[in-house]
Amino acid sequence: MAKFKFDIKCIFSQPVVQISSNLLPHTFIGDRRMAMDVTSKVSQIIDRLGELSAVAQKLSKPITSAQKLRMSENQTVYLMADINGCDGDVVIGLLKIGTKNLYLFDSSGQTRKIDKARCILDFYIHESRQRMGVGKILFDIMLTEEHWTPVKCSVDRPSEKLIQFLKKYYGLEKIIPQANKFVLYEGFFDEDGDDDANRYVFILHYLCTDVFLGIGTKHFISKTFKYSNLDIELIINLIFPKK
Fold it and tell me: To the nearest whole number, what is the mean pLDDT of the chain?
């Protein structure tokens, strides 16, 4: 895990936060002086996790840094922390996503231009927290927040670990070969008719985390995923149908 000399609680008011080009967590509330302090700390966290990710993937240089994120208007970094854990306050994961305009081959070998293709750009869970379901939690939170489904994501230069992760948890196996370094799976070019239904599926994993977060199911769904009251009732009824 990544420890820092400063208090990370000012960044992580919840276990997972989203960081965009302003380098502020989406939960940030404060004045300009506080914003400057938080962006400085966020920059250090992103740079450190980016370096750890590069080492884990045996890359010559990091593909994620605060400077690169600041220069991009269509990328988001999800950071995950363990607050008040047995190791103290530590940052344990990073997931960078974004959209790109790509030329891709479909399953018939035809070239198709995809505007704003959904891309997984970097994914790292600290070695001490791997094989514990932490990566699945982080990935599912991203899917829910972005209203994405796994099969619709293109993956930039995935490691073998990430390929196995997608296979294990999301059943993604059949790769459509590409000339570039992106990996995508059969179903990527299918119609998006199931997306609205699938957005409810990703909530299932989190119901078991209510005790950990110390809040009720309905409040957890509302606080974390910002669904409307109607959406929340639909989700709960799907999971716990009334007899």
Answer: 84
